[in-house]
Design goal:
The complex is a heterodimer of chains A (about 160) and B (about 270).
Chain A (H helix, E strand, L loop, with lengths): L7 E8 L2 E8 L4 H8 L18 E4 L2 E4 L12 E3 L12 H8 L9 H14 L5 H7 L11 H11 L1
Parallel strand pairs in A: 1-5
Antiparallel strand pairs in A: 1-2, 3-4, 3-5
Helix pairs in contact in A: 2-5
Chain B lengths: L6 E3 L4 H10 L3 E4 L5 H6 L7 E4 L9 E3 L5 E4 L4 H6 L8 H6 L5 H6 L2 H7 L6 H8 L2 E6 L2 E6 H4 E3 L2 E2 L6 E7 L5 E7 L6 E8 L6 E5 L6 E3 L6 H10 L12 H21 L3
Parallel strand pairs in B: 1-3, 2-3
Antiparallel strand pairs in B: 4-5, 5-10, 6-7, 6-10, 8-9, 11-12, 12-13, 13-14
Helix pairs in contact in B: 9-10
The chains are: A alpha+beta (about 160), B alpha+beta (about 270).
Chain lengths: ~160, ~270
């Protein structure tokens, strides 16, 4: 079957268990779709050049930077963002660990850090320091120096 | 950042993808998007049409042929290569893919995108030339094969022309390979990189980041001295920029070529 060209198209996604359908322009980035169209502002825009990782989300279970994915590419996908981690006011063990270990200061990078750590812990429930550092290599934090972030993730896997 | 306006199609077959690429002059394949989306943000390129390859399952496989050839589908991600038991038949493939950027980029970036974007600082163009890989390019007229050393024709330019699509990369059997790079930060952009291979007879040493395309050198022997001499005689004219002067890049080319060939030699046994 021949595919047709579109400038915009209805896109259906499952974000944190809720189904959304919106008309989306082909040029729209997934991060803008999440923040501006769905009002899910937990995922942050840091560098908007694919370097900082503040926009990291899970796309069909795979960690990606949502500033380097088009929303239209995500049609039919299951997306997990930082809003999907906690159950109401009940923080996940990982989120509590970030708080307990002072793994954030300004908090801007935290949504991306949490998603990268979530992806890691699903694959490797007991990661080594080296594995943790590799896993958050794509997430830049300018406050903490990373040590407390690594400690926080390690404590969950201990 | 808002991208320029663009049209989009999501074909279900390679045939339909090459039809779209040949029908529209300004059409570009969208593989993992880890280069082209940023390029579009920066307005360095503004394709009229993006042809999204994500549904082309036949481009995602990694296979090991009976003669030991590793066949990488153009849409295989770096993470796919790292995790693939088949790709491990040529260990350098996964090792180099593991040095590219970070988890998120490796999950999405593809081997086809890496070679087709042909940024002079990319990892895979020099590696594929060193390994003597063969690129298979599809068009509406059928398929053709291009040796890796003829595939890279200029900065951001490859032998895959308008209306053509890279479908797979065939890497012959072997394991006597090496790769060395100096990067901007751990696993960052390469300042200079060198891939070397001793399989297939005479040594092949390929220097990246110093010219528009990877520079293939064929030293007389696999000794460190012979390789350094080959780099010296290549009369390289690398660019100078904020990360390294031309002179320093020339120096790195020798050092990294020595490291790469030494690594290849240690895998002889």
């Amino acid at each position: 079957m021949a595919a047709t060209l579109v400038r915009s198209r209805p896109v259906t996604v499952d974000v944190n268990g809720t189904t959304y359908e919106r008309e989306v322009e082909a040029r729209r980035l997934l991060i803008h779709f999440l923040r501006d169209d769905l009002d899910l502002t937990g995922s942050h825009i840091g560098c908007d050049t694919g370097n900082c990782g503040a926009c990291s989300v899970l796309l069909d279970g795979t960690l990606v930077k949502s500033c380097m994915v088009l929303a239209i590419q995500a049609d039919g996908a299951k997306i997990e963002t930082v809003e999907g981690l906690a159950e109401g006011d009940e923080l996940t063990e990982l989120q509590q660990s970030f708080s307990a270990h002072h793994a954030l200061q300004c908090g801007y990078c935290t949504p991306g850090m949490l998603m990268s750590a979530t992806a890691l812990l699903r694959e490797k429930p007991h990661p080594t320091d080296d594995e943790i550092r590799k896993a958050i290599q794509g997430n830049i934090c300018r406050c903490t120096g990373y040590v407390n972030i690594v400690e926080a993730i390690k404590a969950v896997g201990a | 950042m808002l991208l320029p306006e663009v049209e989009y199609a999501r074909p279900a077959s390679v045939q339909d993808a090459v039809r779209l690429l040949s029908e529209y002059d300004g059409a570009r394949p969208l593989a993992g998007g880890q280069t082209i989306i940023n390029v579009m943000k920066a307005r360095a390129a503004a394709p009229d049409v993006l042809v999204d390859l994500q549904d082309l399952e036949e481009l995602k496989g990694i296979e090991l042929a009976t003669d030991g050839t590793v066949v990488l589908g153009a849409m295989a991600t770096y993470s796919d290569v790292i995790e693939s038991a088949e790709a491990r038949a040529r260990p350098i493939l996964g090792e180099v893919c593991a040095q590219i950027a970070d988890v998120q980029v490796r999950n999405r970036g593809t081997v086809g995108g890496n070679v087709c974007s042909n940024d002079p600082t990319n990892h895979l163009p020099p590696l594929m030339v060193a390994l003597g890989a063969t690129m298979t390019v599809a068009s509406s007229g059928g398929e053709r094969s291009v040796p890796a050393e003829e595939f890279f024709v200029g900065v951001y330019e490859t032998a895959a022309g308008p209306g053509e699509l890279l479908t797979r990369i065939s890497v012959p059997a072997g394991k006597e390979d090496g790769f060395a790079a100096v990067t901007i930060g751990k696993d960052g952009t390469c300042i200079v990189n060198v891939a070397a291979s001793l399989n297939g007879g005479a040594p092949r040493v390929v220097v990246g980041c110093v010219d528009a395309v990877p520079v293939l050198l064929r030293p007389d022997s696999a000794t460190e001295d012979a390789v350094r001499e080959a780099v010296q005689n290549a009369n390289l004219h690398p660019p100078s920029d904020v990360h390294a002067s031309a002179e320093y890049r020339r120096h790195l080319a020798q050092v990294l070529a020595a490291r790469a060939i030494n690594e290849a030699r240690t895998r002889r046994n």
